[in-house]
Amino acid sequence: MADPFEVRMRFTHQLQHLNASINSSQKAAHYALKYRDMDEDLHSCILEQLERVCECFKRRRLYLKAETSFPKNSMNNRANIMYFIEHLCDMAQRENHLDFVRMIQRDILRVVDAVAPSDGSGAANVKVVRRVLNGLQNKSILVADTVVEIEACLKERDTLPAHPALSPVEPNTQRDQQPSQIVAPKINGVSRLDKRQIEQRIEEDRERHKRLRENIWAVNDEDDPEFDRLWDDVSDIGEDDYIAAEEDAFERRQAVEVE
């Protein structure tokens, strides 16, 4: 039997290193389902990681760290964990282990508060929360009333289209200062993220949008409603169709003889 402490540590490490790729989320979800007998502990790891990230961000809002000491957990990591939750619930449903689903249903408000806090520090994650909530509703994991209730809270947390948290840092105001002494500029009381976090978020969003477009254009060979509709619209073959085919064949033979 695996050591519970080691399982928690490995799972926490995977949560800290989630990214926009499907493989990253699937690997962590497979690990959680592999040790499903510790589902309560693993679920608590998700909550602890989200809330530790949120608390870590609040403690560091006044300071920008050097790139070498940049924390692995950030607003971007919270967004990745939110997407991971959808993957985990989807896989848990397929494998008929509904305990993970029930725990997410129970703590969904707590998850949303950690991913997109009411203080505005996670305003850029509001769209992420909405997208995942819609996905969970479409998979019948969340009921419509719950999603509507959460959406009412998210409207208050959504800021201007250009979120202050994603605004670039002013370089001229922080020249000649040590990284530990740099004070992060604020707009409306919300700290701006540094350039590396912004670039990371842009790359991850680009990867997700690319995958979304691939899913939109995916074709199911077994069931194609568009083909069925076109087939139904076409009339049965009649005598006129045979006459038209014979005329086309006669014209082709004449064209070949002329050449």
Please give a structural write-up.
The protein is an all-alpha fold. Helix content is 63%, strand content 2%. The chain contains ten helices and two strands; from the N terminus they run H-H-H-H-H-H-H-E-E-H-H-H. The protein has helices at residues 4-16, 22-34, 39-59, 75-94, 99-115, 126-138, 144-157, 195-217, 225-233, 239-258; strands at 186-187, 190-191. A two-stranded antiparallel sheet has the order 1-2. A hairpin with a 2-residue loop joins strand 1 (186-187) and strand 2 (190-191). Helix 2 packs across helix 4. The radius of gyration is 26 Å and the shape is elongated. The protein starts with a helix and ends with a helix. The model is unreliable at 60-72 and 160-185 (pLDDT under 50).
Radius of gyration: 26 Å
Helical content (DSSP H or I, runs of 4+): 55-70%
Low-confidence stretches: 60-72, 160-185
Shape: elongated
Which structural class do the helices and strands define? mainly alpha
Q: What is the H/E order?
A: HHHHHHHEEHHH
Mean pLDDT: 78
Number of helices: 10
Distance between the termini: 81 Å
Strand percentage lies at under 5%
Q: Count the beta strands.
A: 2
Largest β sheet strand count, sense and barrel closure? 2 strands, antiparallel
Question: Strands of the biggest beta sheet: in what spatial order?
Answer: 1-2
Features:
259 residues, mainly alpha
In brief:
Helix content is 63%, strand content 2%. It has 259 residues and is an all-alpha fold.
